[in-house]
Specification:
The chain has 316 residues and is α+β, with helices and mostly antiparallel strands. It contains 9 helices and 12 strands. 47% of the residues are buried. Bound molecules: adenosine-5'-diphosphate and magnesium ion.
């Protein structure tokens, strides 16, 4: 679907070029438009690319880049209510080869694969003008959760604290935990799978582009709108950091009000904070409960809004 509420209309236009031309496939339940493609046997597949100078700068060590590439893919797989199983890696490296950088990148990538139980089963290696790496990851869900199942009246929830990566990237003297989050996102894999398997959530996705853009996507897929209480959005930073930066890799999900206690007890079991931030409504559009405007997006790949920076943070 065209995503005029997203941070980058040009990116949405590019995706549309492919989406409108994609052939149908038997057994494909969800194609372009969700966190991962979903097949009728519960298998899911996703891909993310990281480019030097676009997705990372000198604040990330090579190990962090490898870790983060795995983490952002695990985040998309988890957002479907699925567990990752295997991945394939494509790396483009400038000549002459910096073997030390590549060794350290590989160490971070392998450590993250171990952390989430993902097997690296193949890949490709090439020379490239800039360093970049693409990871394709597959997994499986027993009860997959799309973005499209939300209904008016459902509560809107998020995990964790939003705006930490924004603080890590934008603040003059970020807290240590904010820098750690920027470098090493922690996808909520176990919690996402437990929500899905318990049948508690109607729609779920991960927060990679900021709450405002990503909630617009969940609402568009679910055919509804939402009102959000800005004071309920967890995090210490200004509202723009919490909703308009991205890289949170927290879960955004919707659930009927009678699931509140069950959701809270699973979250407690997984030692993760969850916050009820608003409600889905029949009227389309995203509203803040106090009537204020949403902060402008802080990043875009191709069409930076005024005041926005185009790099080095793109959506992974
Ligand atoms: P996410 O942030 O969850 O990884 P994206 O915003 O990157 O998702 O992409 C949105 C949707 O568009 C996803 O379903 C993704 O698979 C699809 N997509 C993105 N780029 C392309 C492309 N070049 N060709 C086909 N599908 C794409
Ligand atoms: Mg996603």
């Amino acid at each position: 679907m065209p995503d005029s509420d997203g941070p980058d209309p040009a990116e949405a236009d590019v995706i549309e070029l492919f989406r409108t031309r994609a052939r149908p496939l038997e057994g494909l339940l969800l194609g372009i438009g969700d966190d991962a493609a979903l097949f009728s046997d519960g298998r899911v597949v996703t891909v993310d690319t990281m480019v030097d100078g676009v997705h990372w700068d000198a604040r990330l060590e090579p190990e962090d880049v490898g870790w983060k590439l795995v983490a952002v893919n695990v985040s998309d797989i988890a957002a479907m209510g699925a567990r990752p199983e295997w991945c394939v890696l494509s790396v483009s490296l400038p000549s002459p080869l910096d073997l030390r950088w590549t060794e350290r990148f590989a160490a971070g990538l392998v450590a993250a694969c171990d952390r989430w139980g993902v097997a690296l089963v193949g890949g490709d290696t090439t020379r490239g003008a800039v360093r970049s790496a693409t990871l394709t990851m597959a997994g499986r869900a027993s009860r997959p959760i799309p973005r499209s199942g939300g209904r008016p009246g459902d509560d809107v929830w998020v995990t964790g604290e939003l705006g930490l990566a924004a603080e890590g990237f934008l603040a003059g003297t970020p807290r240590a935990e904010a820098l750690v989050r920027l470098r090493r996102p922690e996808p909520r894999l176990e919690l996402a799978v437990s929500f899905a398997d318990a049948g508690l959530v109607t729609a779920m996705m991960d927060l990679s582009d900021g709450l405002r853009a990503d909630l617009a996507r969940l609402c568009a897929a679910s055919g509804c709108g939402a009102t959000v209480d800005p004071g309920a959005i967890p995090g210490e930073g200004p509202l723009s950091w919490r909703v308009a930066f991205g890289e949170d890799y927290e879960l955004l999900f919707a659930a009927p009000a009678d699931r509140r206690d069950a959701l809270r007890s699973l979250a407690t079991m997984h030692r993760t904070r969850i916050a009820r931030i608003g409600r889905l409504e029949a009227a389309s559009g995203l509203r803040l409960r106090d009537g204020t405007d949403w902060p402008v997006p802080l990043f875009a790949h191709f069409a930076p809004p005024s005041g926005a920076r185009a790099s080095p943070r793109g959506d992974a």
